[in-house]
Amino acid sequence: MNTVQVAVESKWADSAHCKSESISQDLIRLVLVKRQNPAARCIFLLAGSATKLTSVLDLPPFTKSSKKNIGLRANLTETRITFDRERPTHMAAFSEAIRDWREVSNIPASFVAKSYGLHPNQTDAGTVRFQAIAWEVTEVCEKDLKGANAW
Questions:
Q1: Helix 20-36 to helix 88-101 angle, to the nearest 10 degrees?
Q2: Among residues 111, 116, 151, which one has the least CA distance to residue 131?
Q3: pTM listed for this prediction
Q4: What are the pLDDT digits (tens) for 35-81?
Q5: In terms of DSSP H, where are the helices of the chain?
Q6: Which of 54, 84, 91, 118 is most buried, by the most CB atoms less than 10 A from its CB?
Q7: Do the bridges between strand 130-140 and strand 110-115 make them parallel or antiparallel, or are there none, so unpaired?
Q8: Gap between the Cα atoms of 71 and 93, Å rounded
Q9: Alpha carbon distance 82, 13 (integer Å)
Q10: Phi, psi of 137 (to 5 degrees)
């Protein structure tokens, strides 16, 4: 039996395809891979011009807030996302992806992703033109999302 060892999804921040909905599609795809292959390394990579990358990181499913369960952080931390229809950021980021993926698989209730931070670090003078950041899906809840059909 073959198992997945590494799965990578990526987006170029300067691309027209780099939107909340497509990023969430990629993340849920990685979550489903991780659920079926717990030992797999599942990575989401976002790269692009420093200016555009910064603006993408201001959109769902990302957040700079320290509040729990708002979105993925870019500051070298692990974040658990428990899908919640009552949170506007979750609806904006994940509703389309959950609707699409629930047709082919049970959606986990939550997942954990670890950020590896922006590289290279921006200088005080703003001379870094391109940056990249990665998140690894490190854990997936065994429980299914209740009410997935209501998304």
A1: 60
A2: 116
A3: 0.90
A4: 999 999 999 999 999 999 999 999 889 876 656 666 788 887 899 99
A5: 20-36, 50-56, 88-101
A6: 118
A7: antiparallel
A8: 9
A9: 25
A10: -75, 110
